Amino acid sequence: MTLSPPDPAASDGWSDMPPDPEHYVALRTTCGLGARTVAAARIGMENGLHCSALRKDGAVIAMARIIGDGGCFTQLVDVMVHPDHRGQGHARAALDRALGWAEANLPESCLVSLVSTPGVEPVYAARGFRPLTGMVRNVGS
C-alpha cells in the first residue's frame, strides 16, 4: 500500500497512514480484537488497500482498514477505537472514511465484506451491509 505520510497540519487528526506494527498490535489487544504478532502486522500494514487512522498526541486512537484484491473482493477490518476515546463518534467516522475511499476507488461490482463484533451489526446495516453466513479459521489451528 503506497500511502502519503500524515499531514502534521491536519486539524482533524485523520490520515491515510496506518499505524506502525507495534502500535497496531497494542491497539488491537487493548480493543479486545485479538492479538497479532508484530511480524504479521508488519506484512498486514504494508499490504492493505486503505487505512483511515485518527491520531492524537502521535498515537492512533481510531482506525478502519480495507484489505483485499482491489477488484472483486475486499474486506473491511480493524474498525476500532481505543477504549479511552469511545463514545465520540470515532468508529463511525473511521467507517465512513474507509467506505468513502472504497466508493471512490473500487469497481462498482467489488464486494466489501466484514466480520462484525456481536451487537454492532445495526451500525453496518445502516451503511448497506446485509448478513450472510460465513466461517473463519486461523492458520495453524
The Cα radius of gyration reads 15 Å
Helices, by number, come to 4
State the helical fraction: 25-40%
Query: Quick check: average pLDDT?
Result: 91
How are the strands ordered across the major sheet? 1-2-3-4-5
How does the major sheet shape up? 5 strands, mixed
Shape: globular
The residue ranges in which pLDDT falls below 50 over 5 or more consecutive positions are 1-9
* Order of helix and strand elements from N to C terminus: EHHEEEHEH
The end-to-end distance, rounded to whole angstroms, is 28 Å
Percent in strands: 15-25%
Q: Write down how many β-strands occur, each being a DSSP E stretch of 2 or more residues.
A: 5
Helix/strand/pairing category:
alpha+beta
Secondary structure elements and their pairing?
Layout: E1 14-15, H1 21-30, H2 38-47, E2 50-56, E3 59-68, E4 73-81, H3 90-105, E5 111-114, H4 121-125
Parallel strand pairs: 4-5
Antiparallel strand pairs: 1-2, 2-3, 3-4
How would you describe this protein?
With 141 residues, the chain is α+β, with helices and mostly antiparallel strands. Helices cover 29% and strands 23% of the residues. It is built from four helices and five strands, in the order βααβββαβα. The chain has a five-stranded mixed beta sheet. Strand 4, helix 3 and strand 5 (111-114) form a beta-alpha-beta unit. Helix 1 (21-30) crosses helix 2 (38-47). The longest helix has 16 residues, at 90-105. The protein is globular, with a radius of gyration of 15 Å.
